[in-house]
Structure formats: structure tokens, C-alpha cells
Amino acid sequence: MPSTAPAAAPPEDLLRGVGLRVTAARVAALRAVGDQQHATADDVLGSVRDELGTVSVQAVYDVLHALTDAHLLRRIEPAGHPARYERRTGDNHHHVICRVCGTIGDVDCTVGHAPCLTPNDDHGFVIETAEVTYWGLCPGCSA
Amino acid sequence: MPSTAPAAAPPEDLLRGVGLRVTAARVAALRAVGDQQHATADDVLGSVRDELGTVSVQAVYDVLHALTDAHLLRRIEPAGHPARYERRTGDNHHHVICRVCGTIGDVDCTVGHAPCLTPNDDHGFVIETAEVTYWGLCPGCSA
DNA sequence: CACACAACTGGAATCATTCCAGTTTAGGGT
DNA sequence: ACCCTAAACTGGAATGATTCCAGTTGTGTG
């Protein structure tokens, strides 16, 4: 058995698996992001409130931070848009973003794999990750 | 003679070259970003005020937008940081950013060139640009 | 089953940026 | 040279996303 539960596992198990307390807000948030990939904090707030009634704004931000720190979620911050959260973590994938409507799609690393991970001149930086964002128009907006 | 003035040309000529009115604020902002590559709006505001005395916050944002729209500046928006502006435009270069201090370095496109420009699965998007950001630690912060 | 600390509440604050209505100014036209 | 109009700038208020804070609640360990 793997030490980390698969993403399909029940939210409760995912939380215990990374040593986080199981709370209603966390379970609901995890499910919300599962249902709506690339959800904003506000989207999550909406879903969680639908499910639990009242939840504070702060709780949602706290939850999203805790889950992101535990690598159960990944945060992406497209220029000019509020942060978005997704369940696919740890697989170095990238994103296509529509300039018009902001729709986001997942893109697996291109040409071979991880081609952009090593810049020619790294300025002496110790590089941890390379993030690729494709900007363009989604099928709907290009019509 | 080329239709676009080289970046080394006096700010006044650059502005006329793209059909923008020559104003003190624009000239000063252009010089400020030339002096301090990857400057924030606030940095530019500081420099411009040093040079001209009083300038409104709004004027600096207006100027930065006008210059960016005219491709005399390029705006970069690193996740979790205020926007930054640079003079190198039109050459599809990328950036290394220090997770600790936020220092930014320019990186020419890597392996061969433009390797990440075409994703395998583009989700039907019409892709305009690919943006690569390397996250890591700068020489100072990795010590 | 109690208790300590993690998580949550609600309200105010912050930061970068934008909106707005009124004033000034660059530069083409006479 | 100087008018005049659209473009640029002023200053103050507003916005949206996110965070800070002090007090309350709840999870799960001992």
C-alpha cells in the first residue's frame, strides 16, 4: 500500500493521510475543488456554504492554505486573475488560459517531458520548479 | 533606418516612434525602468517623484499602461508579487524568480529555442504565447 | 472524557490597482 | 505664435482579493 492515498480516496482519508484534522470545512472544500477543477477561493466558499450553511471567508482561506501546504491542492495564480485551486498535484503539469474568459485547461509537459526545466543561464539561482503558462483563446472565445 | 527606435534611443524618440505624446511623466518612467529593470509601479513612482517632484499615483499607472500597450515596456506579474516592468520587449524571454527575496533574472529561451511553445494537447485553444517562470533561490538566499 | 491546541468566527485592515470628475497640457491647425 | 481639443494628469474615493486580529469552538490525544 502506498503511503499517500490516491486522489480518488475519500477526503477524510486524504486529510488523515497528511496528518491534518478532519473538519467539515476541509472535507467540503476538498470535494468542491474535486467537482470544479480550477476553482477560485470564492467558488469554494460558495460550494462549502451550499453544503454546510454558514462558513466564514477566513475559514475557506485557512483551509485552502492548509490543503495547499499539505500538497492536497495546488494553487495557480494566473496574472490578472484571482488564485485558483486544483486537485492534480505533484505531476508538474502546466496550463492553457483563455485571455478573454479566463478558462483554464491542464497541459501535460510537452516535447518529451520537462523540457523547460533547465535554463541556459540560471544566474546562479538554485532552480526548484519551472512553470509554463500558455496564453491564448479557448474554442468558445476564438469563434 | 529601422521604423522602431532601439531601446538605447532617448525616451522622447521612443515615445514619438510609437505615436505617444511626450510628457515628463512618461520620459521619467521610461528612464526609471531602464535604470532599475523589473521595477514595480511603486518603484517607478518613487523614481519619477525624485525626478519631477510631485506626480500622482494614477499618473504612474496610466503611464505604465500606455507604455505597456505600446510595447515600450513589458509587464510581468509573478504570483504573489506586485506587477513588475521591464524594457526588454518583443524577444520572448523568460524569468527566474527567487522564492525568498523576489529578485528576478532574465532567462533566454532554453534548450534549443522555444521548446515549450506547442503543448501536446491544446484543448482546442488558439495559443498566442508561452510564458515560462523558473522558481528557486537566488545566489544570496541559497547561502 | 477532559483539555490543549488547532481550527473557525466576524469584523477591520492591507495592498495593489482602478474608477471618477474635474483640471491641465501637448501639439496639430490656422 | 497661439487656439483648441483630445489626451494626460490630479486627488480622493472605491474595489477585489487576501490577510490580520482577538475571541470562540471543536478535534482528537492522553
Task: Characterize the structure shown.
The structure is a homodimer of 143-residue chains. Chain A is of the alpha+beta class and 143 residues long. Helix content of chain A is 31%, strand content 20%. The first copy, chain A, has helices spanning 11-17, 24-35, 41-52, 57-69, and strands at residues 39-40, 74-76, 84-86, 94-98, 104-107, 126-137. In chain A, the strands form 2 sheets. A 3-stranded antiparallel sheet of chain A has the order 1-3-2. In chain A, strands 5-4-6 form a 3-stranded mixed sheet, with no helix packed on it. In chain A, helix 2 (24-35) packs across helix 3. The longest helix of chain A has 13 residues, at 57-69. The first copy, chain A, is globular, with a radius of gyration of 17 Å. Chain A binds chain B through residues 76-77, 79-80, 83, 94, 96, 98-99, 105, 107-108, 110-111, 115-116, 118-139, 142, and chain B through 76-77, 79-80, 83, 94, 96, 98-99, 105, 107-108, 110-111, 115-116, 118-139, 142. Strand 6 (126-137) of chain A pairs antiparallel with strand 6 (126-137) of chain B. The first copy, chain A, binds a DNA duplex (30 and 30 nucleotides) through residues 21-23, 25-26, 40-42, 54-59, 61-63, 66, 82-83.
